[in-house]
Amino acid sequence: MIIVITMPKLPFKAREKSDCLGARRSTRREAILDVLTSGPGHLSAEEIHKAALKRLPRIGIATVYRALKFLCGCGKAAEFIPADGVARYEPAGSRAHHDHLICTSCGCFIEAVDPEIERLQVRLAARHRFKPSSHKLEIYGLCSNCAGK
Amino acid sequence: MIIVITMPKLPFKAREKSDCLGARRSTRREAILDVLTSGPGHLSAEEIHKAALKRLPRIGIATVYRALKFLCGCGKAAEFIPADGVARYEPAGSRAHHDHLICTSCGCFIEAVDPEIERLQVRLAARHRFKPSSHKLEIYGLCSNCAGK
DNA sequence: GTTCTTGCAAAGGCTTTGCAGTTCT
DNA sequence: AGAACTGCAAAGCCTTTGCAAGAAC
Hints:
The structure is a homodimer. By secondary structure, chain A is of the alpha+beta class. Chain A has a single domain, classed as 2-Layer Sandwich (Dna Ligase, domain 1), CATH 3.30.1490.190. Chain A has five helices and six strands; from the N terminus they run H-E-H-H-E-E-E-E-H-E-H. Chain A has helices at residues 27-38, 45-53, 61-74, 115-127, 144-148, and strands spanning 43-44, 77-80, 88-91, 99-103, 109-112, 131-142. The first copy, chain A, has a three-stranded antiparallel β-sheet. Chain A has a three-stranded mixed β-sheet with strand order 5-4-6. In chain A, helix 1 (27-38) packs across helix 2 (45-53), helix 1 packs across helix 3 and helix 2 (45-53) packs across helix 3 (61-74). The first copy, chain A, starts with 26 loop residues before the first helix and ends with a helix. Chain A binds a DNA duplex through helix 3.
């Protein structure tokens, strides 16, 4: 069984709070959400940890993972796992869905959307009597920079 | 940097052989390829190992991983990593590309293709001056069986 | 006999968990 | 005070690697 959207065991009170940032104010979670929204996007947990350390010198990697699970559960962040198997995180909720063009040379991520593809995916699922809840399209290849070399 | 299609270090002679099954005949690699082609598909390394053990009671998991890398390098198998982060393998080469509908309830994989989506993906990449080499579309949701419940 | 292949055990990399101490309300 | 949050270290899981023994050519 595969869980795609992991809802963390939110503390009881957190579920009642509209901002979903937790039952209590937490400097770490706020910092991590901020790293996520102000950073370049598509960061790994380790990269997020590194960025967070600049603001909170003693924050541990476990806290980062916990906060990320939490934020994903709240819909404030989204996790996705590219072909290298290392999870990346991006802010979610306020941002539109998008697919990824991933450069296999420099590792950069380009966000892209094609409404038509989105529509066709729904059709494809329907054709198989499949009820889609989320999807993920990744195109691997060379970005314009790397292809030029 | 993200390597999507990992070409294993093939032994020198293996590269010259057309069947690409290795420089030498290997019962294990043949068995694993057979598990792959005759099995239900989308098996994890562990599942493949379990199936292989029935034929070769002493085969080790390392051999399975090595063989899988090898077969992927030869184009005889394809690896893909769904949202749970655990690699799955399927026979390749003789089979057409396809996308996956993945049931988040029972974990089943449905293979599907939509030629139009394929075309639009190329267009989408081109629009970003991106040179695609492979892509992966996964739709998560409920299969008809699970949706009915 | 040389080179490839294998099993085993150990190590690696990413992620989660247990626990005791700390913080928030 | 009570529940939530945190850092640290340990454990977990999947995968790879080192090495000595075995097999193929």
